[in-house]
Amino acid sequence: MTDVDVTCEPRPGGWLCRVAVRDGSDASRTTRHEVMVDAAVLQRLVPVPEFDDIDRLVRETFAFLLERESKESILRRFDLAVVERYFPEYPREIERRIAG
């Protein structure tokens, strides 16, 4: 079982999120990531004015990524907007996951 722990903190213009992806209880198999979420990107991906659950957005993004690649293949530091470059279906899929 893969656990995804997300902690986000506000930064000017957006958020910085720290993510730990762990397989079971083996801490040596944990990968760590930093994800920058720009406020404008958030509005484009989740066009719901009252949406402010950044942790959930990043958690859903990692669920999406883990369905397509191993945790070791996910960039260690990236801006959320870059996901769309690798996976063009990402905006449509993340909106579906957040809305559903």
Overview of this protein structure:
There is one protein chain. This protein has 100 residues and is α+β, with helices and mostly antiparallel strands. The chain has one domain (2-99). It is 34% helix and 31% strand. It has helices spanning 39-45, 54-66, 83-86, 90-99; strands spanning 2-11, 14-23, 31-38, 77-79. Helix 2 crosses helix 4 (90-99). The mean pLDDT is 92.
Keywords:
100 residues; alpha+beta; 4-stranded mixed β-sheet; 4 helices
Question: What is the count of structural domains?
Answer: 1
- Alpha-beta classification: alpha+beta
Oligomer: single chain
N-to-C SSE series? EEEHHEHH
- Reading side by side through the largest sheet, how are the strands ordered? 1-2-3-4
Overall average residue pLDDT: 92
Taken as a percent bin, the fraction of beta residues is: 25-35%
**Which segments are poorly predicted (pLDDT under 50) over 5 or more consecutive residues?**
none
Main beta sheet strand tally, sense and closure: 4 strands, mixed
Can you describe this structure in just a few lines?
The chain is of the alpha+beta class. It is built from four helices and four strands. It has one domain.
